[in-house]
Amino acid sequence: VGPGNVPCYIDKTAKLRTSVNDLVLSKAFDNGMICASEQAVLVDRDIYEEFEKLMKEDGCYFVSPEEKNKLQESMFEKTEEYGYKLKSHVPGQSPCTIAKEAGFEVPEDTKVLVVYEEGIGNEYPFSKEKLSPVLTYYIVENEEEGIAKAEKLLEFYKNLADDLGKRLENAIKEFNDAKKLISELEEKVEDLTNELRKYKQL
User: Fold this and answer.
1) Of the listed 8, 35, 60, 96, which one is catalytic?
2) N or C: which end of the chain has fewer CB within 10 A?
3) Burial 78-93 (b: 16+ CB within 10 A, else e)
4) Where are the beta strands (DSSP E) in the chain?
5) pLDDT in 10s for each residue of the chain, 202 residues
């Protein structure tokens, strides 16, 4: 299984308590390291208040806007080549550790950090895969918007993966070209060494 950016859409007709239970179990397992675990949840506006209540009851912590900014600074670094990139210290860490490194405290029994987001794409790092118990949260108006945003999350990550794949192909080609050049230089050095030996024998 390769990298993923799994979205979860919860419709207003869903069995909400069951949905929340399954979502938290999946996201909290192994501190979110499983690439098949949910990276974002999209919830119908009609049920978002009940959803948040049940999530909090199940040990989830909804970060404030200020805490979100701290979390972004701590979890991601912005590069010219890749945009926002997840920092190496984040994957597999507990919610408490991640929050503490960002500069705020959460209850010790916190299972998942929930981050409210509106955008999707390179300028919204929480819309990427996070390999941690950090869940991105979207509120949508209806099923149509929920499915559209879920598809956009998948498409965004597919484009990102395609771009990284092309970069990897180019890097491999450059590496192979360099190996070929080194091999050619080694042959020339060997030829020159042999000629030098012959000259010394004269």
Assistant:
1) 35
2) C
3) eeeeebbebeeebeeb
4) 6-10, 38-44, 60-62, 76-79, 83-86, 112-116, 134-140
5) 445 689 999 999 999 999 999 999 999 999 999 888 999 999 999 999 999 999 999 999 999 999 999 999 999 999 887 788 999 999 999 999 999 999 999 999 999 999 999 999 889 999 999 999 999 999 999 999 999 999 999 887 654 444 444 554 555 667 676 777 787 788 888 877 777 777 777 6
Burial class (CB in 10 A: 0-12, 13-18, 19+), 119: exposed
Q: How far apart are CA 176 and CA 154, in angstroms?
A: 32
35 flagged as catalytic: yes
